Amino acid sequence: MAAAGGATGREGWSSKTAFVLAAIGSAVGLGNLWRFPAEAGENGGGAFVLFYIFCVLLIGLPVLLSETLIGRHGQSSPTLSARKLAVESGASPYWEAVAGIGVLAAFLIVSFYCVVGGWVLYYVWQFIADLMNSGVSGGAFKGVEIDTIRAFFPDLLGNAGLMVGLNLVFLAVTGFFVIRGVSGGIEVMAVWLMPVFFVLLVAITIYGAFGGAFGEAMDFLFTFEPEKLTGEVMLAAVGQAFFSLSLGVAGMVTYGSYVGRDVNLAGTSTIIAAADTSVALISGVCIFPIVFAAGLAVDGGPGLMFQTIPVAFQSIPGGTIVGLLFFLMVTVAALTSSVALLEVPTAWAMEKFKASRRTCALSVIIAAGILGTLAALSFNTLADFHPLGFIPLFEGQGMFDVLDGVTAKLFMPIGAILVCILVGWIADARLVDSENGLDGALHIFWRFLVRWACPIVLAAILFVGLTS
Ligand code: PHE
Is the CB of 251 under 6 A from ligand 1? Predict the structure, then answer.
């Protein structure tokens, strides 16, 4: 199949499969492996999980289709694509701000996402070191006190040099693939690494199913107890669905802009959402049997992956090698997502400044490296620096928390609401219809969701996020 952007001479995916794998790579990331189990653990298990699936179907999927549609129609940078759709529909060119917010959000997210990517690299190293010290037999970290294993994490956070170094390594690897381009870098990475990811995920899950407390984990994840479905749990679920599907940051607009006309976007969006949700659920099924088998608490929050899981690998046979494979799998997932994030501001800058991919990517990498360094230092040297301390919502928060909070609470919901307004209300319905690949009742239903349901639910998240 010809490169998607062939007609315009622009870069593009070499096939539909390449696009789908890259988009799945973008969606499947720390959000699935780190955030989803932590959120499910903290929000009561089954009630959260079922509501999450509901949100993916009714809120996430329609917005995913809307974002890829804006990109595919525009065949240009995210902002220019949004502008084209608006102008061709007789609306103001300023609608490009829809994607402008996303570009800024993607830049801010990649800055702290690579810090977390650095933590994952640290654990890969811990398991390699353990493998070299004591081999594969028995559990990981033999003879090491549980408190010492748990302390790996605060020790890492307190080590300024290591935090900054690991962050920059992760960012540099991300940059390597982005500089190589869409079909030469991003796609090659996704096509090779996503299958590796799936094999590792399935292998570790089967291992946990036989060796871990499988029944207990399944009960926890899939027993629906309606009384646990509080407003807070519902909002956590919608927010998680959005983050996990990479929405609200123009990422899917950017990836969509490299897609050819022959691709049915409703079909690909469904595959992407189904794959992302399956991975989230499987990672729950992968992680909780191991946690339960070790008799550990499920509500470890963010520490679940970096404190509970390493301890869990101590008490299971083959823990060193399984632990190493586990953190390698997380590295792959995080990398394919950080590449997607870095590509957004790079694609924007290439079009805005008519400059080469290399120049633009390097400039974004340097800027993200500086911001990421501040984020990495906010756990140690700069713990008392509160960049937005004058705003009550961000009082007392360091750079890492500010970047996370600003993007998750403000930019992502606002970006997604504007996408819905642009596609549902502003854009010419005929233009939209020619891109979305839907017809009949499904089409009417999708339009209803994009015009009404999604913006209203997203406005509720925005409101609660800003007031709580
Ligand atoms: N969806 C990714 C994850 O689950 C994060 C991400 C958000 C990636 C936005 C790209 C754009 O980790």
Answer: yes
